[in-house]
Amino acid sequence: MIKILSYKKKISGDNFSSTIDRLVDLHFKNLPSSLYTYLGNSALRIFYTLLLKSSFTTIYFAYIKSELSGFIILAPYDFSIIKSFLTQIYRININDLFFIIISILKKIFRYNLLRYDLFIKLITQKKENHHENTMKIVSIIVDSSNRGKGIGRSLIHSAINYCQLHSYKSISANTTSLQPDAVNFYKSQKNFILKDSYKDNIRDLYNYKFVCFIS
Ligand SMILES: CC(C)(COP(=O)(O)OP(=O)(O)OC[C@H]1O[C@@H](n2cnc3c(N)ncnc32)[C@H](O)[C@@H]1OP(=O)(O)O)[C@@H](O)C(=O)NCCC(=O)NCCS
To answer: How many angstroms is it from 181 CA to the middle of ligand 1?
Structure first.
């Protein structure tokens, strides 16, 4: 039995720290090692904390027997900037310093949601072709032990319903040849079409861009 819950509605009852632990765990277990996992634990915690605390993002969690088994994060912004920002920080090895700065900021602003939004605004960008009425899938992950049970499809349906309700015109999703499951998953979703694919010579992989037009 799959239960899909909107995160924002659940925010008050959640144990925030253990939720972040679970997201980081799902991330490390289910994404190929060359993809973002090099960010390291503390940088990933910051990444997910920002996403969960921001009012810009929309998140659905999938539970199987009350265990968090998958999630989808949607945002009207391009979050690749956060990732590269965190990567740079990690490369110069001051991610722990960054973590301390965030902790101090959290204390100063007493978890004021507006401050997270401000921070997210500062380090993300709207790409020119990323229109206001397009929602982007920042991340969709289903735990490997629960794949093939329709969780991914249910999460996508929740996203489409949300976008219909809030008058978004389309949903975009990027994935790569490092994630063949995700490529096949989007190809199998009748609402999604492959918009573009191109080779990334630096990372020696293919990028795929899918789009779902909301009717
Ligand atoms: C992609 C992912 C979310 C799919 O989740 P899932 O719960 O296994 O998907 P579902 O069971 O809902 O499958 C839905 C459809 O996709 C198809 N599908 C899913 N995985 C597939 C695969 N590896 N190969 C072929 N088809 C696949 C299913 O056959 C199903 O088709 P149907 O509707 O015709 O029956 C999951 O494989 C995953 O988490 N992958 C790793 C993380 C990742 O790469 N995320 C994307 C980038 S952020």
So the answer is: 6
Q: How far is CA 157 from the centre of its chain?
A: 16
Q: Is 26 in the pocket of ligand 1 (CB under 6 A)?
A: no
Closest residue by CA, ligand 1 atom 12 = 150
How open is the CA angle 174-138-200, to the nearest 5 degrees? 30
The first and second tokens of residue 95, run together, are 């991610």
Residue of minimum CA distance from atom 9 in ligand 1? 152
- Report the atom number in ligand 1 closest to the C-alpha of 142: 39
3-state secondary structure (DSSP) of residue 203: coil
- pLDDT per residue over 43-91, tens digit each? 788 788 888 888 889 999 999 998 999 999 999 887 777 766 666 665 5
172 lines ligand 1 (CB under 6 A): no
Confirm if 153 and 189 have CB atoms less than 8 A apart: yes
pLDDT single digits (tens) 105-136: 666 655 555 567 777 777 777 765 556 689 99
Beta-bridge partner residues of 78? 125
The reply to whether ligand 1 has any atom less than 6 angstroms from the CB of 80 is: no
Task: Say whether pTM exceeds 0.85.
Answer: yes
> What CATH class is the domain 2-213?
alpha beta
Q: 81-101 in b/e burial notation, b at 16+ Cβ within 10 A? A: ebbebbeebbeeeebeebbee
User: What span, in angstroms and rounded, lies between the C-alpha atoms of 11 and 120?
Assistant: 19
Q: Is 150 in the pocket of ligand 1 (CB under 6 A)?
A: yes
